[in-house]
Prior knowledge:
Elements: H1 6-19, H2 23-37, E1 41-42, E2 73-75, H3 87-92, H4 95-101, E3 105-108, E4 113-114, E5 125-127, H5 147-159, E6 163-168, E7 177-181, E8 186-191, E9 207-208, E10 225-226, H6 231-239, H7 244-250, E11 256-259, H8 267-277, E12 280-283, H9 290-300, E13 303-305, H10 307-318, H11 330-333, E14 338-341, H12 353-360, E15 366-370, H13 371-377, H14 380-393, E16 398-403, E17 407-412, E18 421-426, E19 432-437, E20 445-447, E21 463-468, E22 472-478
Parallel strand pairs: 2-3, 2-15, 3-6, 6-11, 11-12, 12-13, 13-14, 14-15
Antiparallel strand pairs: 1-16, 4-5, 7-8, 9-10, 16-17, 17-18, 18-22, 19-21, 20-22
Amino acid sequence: MKKLNFKAYLLSALLVGMYSCNSNDDLATDSAAAASQFKVINVTHHDGKPFSTGKSANSTTGRYVANPGGGVMMQAFYWDVPAGGNWWNTVNAKITAWSNAGIGSIWLPPVSKAQNGAFSMGYDPTDYFDFGNYNQNGTVETRFGSRTELESLITKVHAENMQVYADMVLNHNSGGQLENNPFTGTQTYTNFTGIASGKFPRTSADFYKNAYGNNDEGAFGGFPDLAHVVPNVQDWLWKRADGVGKYYKNTMKFDGWRFDYVKGFAPWVIKDWNANVGGFSVGELWDSNVNILNDWANNANSSVFDFACYYKMNDAFDGNNLNLLNDDMMWKRNPYKAVTFVSNHDTDEIWKKELAYAYILTHEGYPTIFYRDYEEWLNKAKMDNLIWIHNNKGTGTTSILYTDTDEYIARRNGYNGNPGLVVYINNSSTWQERWIQTNWANAQIKDFTGNSTWFPTTQGDKWVKIQCPPNGYSVWSINM
């Protein structure tokens, strides 16, 4: 049972005594009590436009990026997907269904040949231009398939008016040959002059430690650490017309980039890539500090994964304190550069995933769905419903209407004629009801999830009573 605000309790009791004979007056009593408890928090302040991924140069008008609520991304892999070279075909077979569900883009794992050959997930890249078409590192195909199968997948994505993002590993390389390194006085595996594609040859001069310095912002796993200050590295990664970035964009037809481990180098690297190559951009900056995320996004001119939101959701839903959802997150600080998620190939800590997806798919930012959550672990019909709600009702700025340890209610304030929504999340084991103020006067509303069968009408002052199922959510908007 909820603890009542003492002042609200007195006010409610007084009004009940005065007007207990009239049901309409009972409504006023509840509204007055609610008004005394709720202090609306206007979280974001902007013109209400949805998150934009930009226009794809490789497809026609964006079917999903033009939705009122913006787009939804699918992370189209997980760690250690089945080896054997069939993953591109597996994903290809799902594209039409994902498109029909309202998913507007897919994020693929690193597509080039890596040191571990047919068994690699791609995060130890050897030859950026080997997409499963050269015999090196013990295989022709990558773990995921052949270049022909990859190109077929990309073509299918664009035929469905979706976008496709490549996972780019720019921090480090692996699989080079041993050479004498004059900068370390030892032998290092930094000779990439014999790669099968013949493109982007590298030597010890292109990795730290070298003539330009001893190190950059970070190294990973003992792999050779690319030195982005070296002209040869810049030329081949983003400046040359036949370099990595422009080849992936113009020849392979990728629409954007997920940059791996951006803590390993300075933000100017991504800023220069984006300025020279273009396309959608999001960085994996694994940090819960909103200031660090926001500073990096601004300096890199890129979106960033909202790890602050991720960890707050974990603490709120699994820690049974929804008040934590009032805390700062990247989507609140900079909604047009925040990519939200519930789980991914590296981290999967949130147990109450349905509540977390209800949160990110009704709030601002660019929500990402994890393959296994959608295809294996959660109720796909419920996920499709939330995607539909996001695309069609999740519009405008955000206001938090109420929170306590197990209730959270927020309002999307609508944009460009779209009415927006009210989302109610209930982390308790019983049904909950609460009076809240909408943006709609004298309007019938309904729960677009179907979890509630109520069809209440808002009062002239825009207040209305809504409900939410136990350990669940409801999403309310005008019944139209």
